[in-house]
Amino acid sequence: MSTSTQPRIAIIGAGPGGLVCARILQRHGISATVYDRDASRSARDQGGTLDMHPGAGQKALREAGLLDGFTASARPEGRQMRLVGRDGRVLFDMAPPEGVDEAGGGADGEAGAAVGNPEIDRGRLRDLLLDSLHPGTVRWGHKLAHVEPLTVGVHRLHFADGATIDADLVIGADGAWSTVRRRLSDATPVYTGVTFVETGLDDADTRHAALAALTGDGTMMALDDNRGFVAQRNSHRHVRVYVGMRTGENWHRDAGLDLSDEVAVRDALLKEFTGWSPDLLRFITDTDTGYTNRPLYALPAPHAWPHTPGLTLLGDAAHLMSPFSGMGANLAMLDGADLARALIDAPTAIDEAVRAYEDLLLPRSAAAAEGAAEGIAGAFAPDSAAQTLAHMTRRH
């Protein structure tokens, strides 16, 4: 494709899906510009660890020419999965043998597919993708305000600082509260009924030796009676902890709780987990960081939109679901790779390419969203320990 005939492609959001799409397009001589609201690549923490599935995240990285880089940064030991009862007893503990790489969840959206898929920290994955792009590909500090249709297939992007750009294809990779999605769909994320309160610890501190041992080398879950703990090992000896509850979206306001008051938050969480093992309660009391409230949202499923020339979605903007799908980032990266491939295969027919991509995306994401809804319902239920144990032993 010659430069004069190249479409103006704008990707909104520098998450894994948008960056994969930009990288694959660039490898095939097609330009794309990524616009992100963050002031810089280091403006905020990128979150916990991800398991990359062979049929999804790893497939996208291979298409991007980055699989070797991923392998060098991944943590195969992070595949361990441990289930603990509320009394602190280990109910299930498994990591696949060395050299075994199970197919896992592939692209089918089944929850609980972490075992068998190497882990990588979100920040390391993002750095790998960002470093692979041509300089200047990502324009930081560009918060999208709204999208204005100009002519069929052409849209003007209005940014919060007053800047505008016109594009022949706008790819909404802008996450849960996508601005691009508003132009395509009336759907908005709905609270799942579950909130995570995030905290963490440094296992280099000998005070945390018992918590580090209980976490193991991968992910530890303790789930029962609509509550639970998820402890997830990250790089640099950090353990990220999520204290989960099935509760009201505004539980803290209803309790008159100031989330900035760490002592009050700690005491409220301890009350929620009355009767749980003291060993597990230390994930609340003995951590090194504060508490961050993270209510979990999902788009109504299935989520679809009328095909609109010049616009499409990928990742959470298209199919936000609970983390219990085990497939969020994997699907976003597969979306980005499939969209890029469709554009490469039909370089002079953008609309035809986007239609082909959406024909793949919509049924796949509907199936994944169904699995995610089932996953969070089972993980935060009155008998969640029994349900999760049955699921794990059935799979392994």
TrEMBL record:
<keyword id="KW-0547">Nucleotide-binding</keyword>
<comment type="subunit">
    <text>Monomer.</text>
</comment>
<dbReference type="GO" id="GO:0005737">
    <property type="term" value="C:cytoplasm"/>
</dbReference>
<dbReference type="InterPro" id="IPR002938">
    <property type="entry name" value="FAD-bd"/>
</dbReference>
<feature type="binding site">
    <location>
        <position position="316"/>
    </location>
    <ligand>
        <name>FAD</name>
    </ligand>
</feature>
<keyword id="KW-0285">Flavoprotein</keyword>
<dbReference type="InterPro" id="IPR043683">
    <property type="entry name" value="TetX_monooxygenase"/>
</dbReference>
<feature type="binding site">
    <location>
        <position position="122"/>
    </location>
    <ligand>
        <name>FAD</name>
    </ligand>
</feature>
<dbReference type="GO" id="GO:0004497">
    <property type="term" value="F:monooxygenase activity"/>
</dbReference>
<keyword id="KW-0963">Cytoplasm</keyword>
<keyword id="KW-0274">FAD</keyword>
<dbReference type="GO" id="GO:0046677">
    <property type="term" value="P:response to antibiotic"/>
</dbReference>
<dbReference type="InterPro" id="IPR036188">
    <property type="entry name" value="FAD/NAD-bd_sf"/>
</dbReference>
<dbReference type="Pfam" id="PF01494">
    <property type="entry name" value="FAD_binding_3"/>
</dbReference>
<feature type="binding site">
    <location>
        <position position="51"/>
    </location>
    <ligand>
        <name>FAD</name>
    </ligand>
</feature>
<feature type="binding site">
    <location>
        <position position="44"/>
    </location>
    <ligand>
        <name>NADPH</name>
    </ligand>
</feature>
<keyword id="KW-0560">Oxidoreductase</keyword>
<feature type="domain" description="FAD-binding">
    <location>
        <begin position="9"/>
        <end position="368"/>
    </location>
</feature>
<dbReference type="GO" id="GO:0071949">
    <property type="term" value="F:FAD binding"/>
</dbReference>
<comment type="similarity">
    <text>Belongs to the aromatic-ring hydroxylase family. TetX subfamily.</text>
</comment>
<keyword id="KW-0521">NADP</keyword>
<protein>
    <recommendedName>
        <fullName>Flavin-dependent monooxygenase</fullName>
        <ecNumber>1.14.13.-</ecNumber>
    </recommendedName>
</protein>
<keyword id="KW-0503">Monooxygenase</keyword>
<comment type="function">
    <text>An FAD-requiring monooxygenase active on some tetracycline antibiotic derivatives, which leads to their inactivation. Hydroxylates carbon 11a of tetracycline and some analogs.</text>
</comment>
